[in-house]
From TrEMBL:
Source organism of this protein record: Granulicella cerasi
Classification via Pfam families: Glycos_transf_2
The protein's name: Glycosyltransferase family 2 protein
Lineage summary: Bacteria, Pseudomonadati, Acidobacteriota, Terriglobia, Terriglobales
InterPro entries in the record: Glyco_trans_2-like (IPR001173), Glycosyltransf_2 (IPR050834), Nucleotide-diphossugar_trans (IPR029044)
Domain Glycosyltransferase 2-like: 20-146
Superkingdom, taxonomy of origin: Bacteria
Length: 176
């Protein structure tokens, strides 16, 4: 666990099929702990979890320290925003695939396993996405409401579908 001053050299001896779960965080130790626990509980075992704190935060460091050998924790020297923390985490990753997870979200236990069944090493720029469950007390909403169509444009499906929007998370929406 260390404050980042420079990025480490390229990863060596990378396990085939390794997935890097990238989690940016900012002063939310209990939330990031839950996110990390769900990432480490994946049925797909070839993974590493990289948490980058957007600024120095002793409480977050303490709660994650020594948790699992697959967890790496870094802190930015100063607050730079979630995009920078996420980008640094990606640069620190060693995996062939990147899985993004926000610090206040959780992964279903088989999420990465299901996605890796679709992964194709011959097409490394492929994007594998899944639907999201929003929990509202006793009600669950699944978004998008349906799987993507075979010939449907990914950008239209993710960004323009009315059922996919939540506040400012989309660029255009008919019923946000």
């Amino acid at each position: 666990m260390s404050v980042i001053t420079e990025l480490p050299p390229f990863c060596s001896d990378v396990e085939a099929g390794l997935v890097s779960v990238v989690i940016p965080t900012y002063r939310r130790p209990q939330e990031v702990l839950r996110a990390v626990e769900t990432a480490l509980a994946q049925t797909y075992r070839a993974l590493e979890v990289i948490v980058v704190s957007d600024g120095v935060h002793a409480e977050t460091r303490a709660i994650l320290e020594g948790m699992d050998s697959r967890l790496r924790y870094y802190e930015l020297a100063q607050n730079s925003g979630p995009a920078e923390a996420r980008n640094v985490a990606v640069r620190l990753s060693c995996g062939e695939w990147i899985a993004f997870l926000d610090d206040d979200d959780e992964m279903m236990p088989t999420k990465i396993e299901h996605q890796m069944r679709l992964a194709d090493r011959a097409q490394p720029k492929r994007m594998i996405a899944c639907r999201v469950v929003y929990r509202h007390g006793v009600r669950d909403d699944i978004h998008p409401e349906r799987p993507i169509g075979a010939d449907e444009d990914v950008a239209d499906y993710i960004l323009l579908r009315p059922g996919c929007c939540r506040g400012l998370e989309c660029f255009r929406c008919n019923r946000c």
